[in-house]
Amino acid sequence: MNNDSRFLGRRAMLGTISATVLAATAARAQDAEPETPAAEPAQTGRPGEYLITGAHLLTMDDKLGEIASGAVHVRDGAIVAVGADLQAPGAQRIEAHGAVVMPGFVDTHWHLWATLARGLGAKGGFDKAMAALAPKFGPQDNALGVRLSLAEAAHAGITTVCNFAHNTRGPEAARAEWQAMRDSGLRGRFYYGHPNELPKDKLMDLPGLEALAKEIKGDGLVSLGVAARGPDRSLAEIWRREWAAARDLNLPISTHVAYSKAVAQSGAIKAMAEGSFLGPDVQLIHLTQASDDDLRRVADGGSPVGLCPWTEMQVGFGLPPVARLQKQGLPIGLGLDNLALAGNADVFAMMKLTADLAAASAGEQGTLTERQVLEWATIGGARSIGMEEQIGSLTPGKRADLIMVRMDAVNTTPAPRPDITLVRAAQPANISLVMIEGRIHKRGGRLVGHDTRKLLRDAGGAFSRLQKEAGI
């Protein structure tokens, strides 16, 4: 046998071995658990009592400011005390040396159901990509998207989530999403919505909204709002009836507006201002194409604004007018918007992008400081959704929604200015502790109370089934 023949023989034999190994590996992978570790069991009973010590406190409270080496006392779901030297006999101590402790992030706009189709909307835009898939969602698919989103939110230090539910195909879907939020233990608001493609001359499900509003007493972690259409998405008699119904039920409203030149030039904001449809109860999302006159109308009307910079740029809504919004002094919160587009829940990256957009549009570095954008992600976001009395700062008497971020990691050391390091360098993986209403949701970098193995299996299976049903 010549050298070429021997070489070909060995090559064939190696190919056979490789094929066998790959086949065996694939077979094992089908039965194997995902590498993600199972979470710790959820806390049960009353929230515990904790004393978090040795932390650099970013309280986001104007009176308390920063405390270089401080402690936070938590009891029965509330912040009892914040200071440099606290004693709490009997409390469970949590050592936070080398970490920042701060209020949890407040996400003010997120379509939670769509996380089940993560990345799909990145090709061809959300509406086009999801047109076939969205109608195939059943109520439990909606709920699964919510559960997946909220597990990632807890991992990322987002303690309050505003769910703009725009694939609500009946009261069962709405109730499934709301219940999934309740079960998660995260704080949030469920904005009762409608199918994204609902015709302009059709009303949203107002009877379902009213029924759920009567059931919710307002004493839980999840409140109710309305994901409403504005002048650009429905006929005048339709959107006005929907908004009137929301206000009759005393529910806050969230709506997309001025996200394209055509919508901005249609006079939607002017119509809302002239009809007294602006106010602290009406959150406006995007505003990327709003004129200066419209921004003044919004400021005069007192409506807060939700910015979603990742998706606003990706889908071509335009550059978020961060500097112009800041100049008007509008209440501003940040939102992930849509993980079918944005990809993952990373508030640190979103804050960095927001600060850089302000500098780019104004032509001057430092137009929006890291401290200011950190406020938008915490107390500013809470203020924009009317929850500043409950959350958003480490203030005694407020609810115990807080996070611990390690500043002694390779990507966060040194950190002479913790606020700058958080915005410029930190990642969700640096978050070692997440507490909501005094209950621990993440500890030692691992989720608590979220069965991630089952969640990932369920999400993968559901997406595969939905793809087949939609013919994608």
TrEMBL record:
Signal peptide, first to last residue: 1-23
Span list, region Disordered: 28-47
| SUPFAM superfamilies attached to this UniProt entry | Composite domain of metallo-dependent hydrolases, Metallo-dependent hydrolases
Please state every residue range assigned to the domain named Amidohydrolase-related: 100-440
Q: Which UniProt keywords apply?
A: Hydrolase, Signal
Q: Which domain of life is it from?
A: Bacteria
**Low complexity: bias regions:** 28-44
Can you provide one Gene Ontology molecular function annotated for this UniProt record?
Answer: hydrolase activity, acting on carbon-nitrogen (but not peptide) bonds
Q: Which family does it belong to?
A: Belongs to the metallo-dependent hydrolases superfamily. ATZ/TRZ family.
Designated name of the protein: Amidohydrolase-related domain-containing protein
Task: List the source organism.
Answer: Teichococcus wenyumeiae
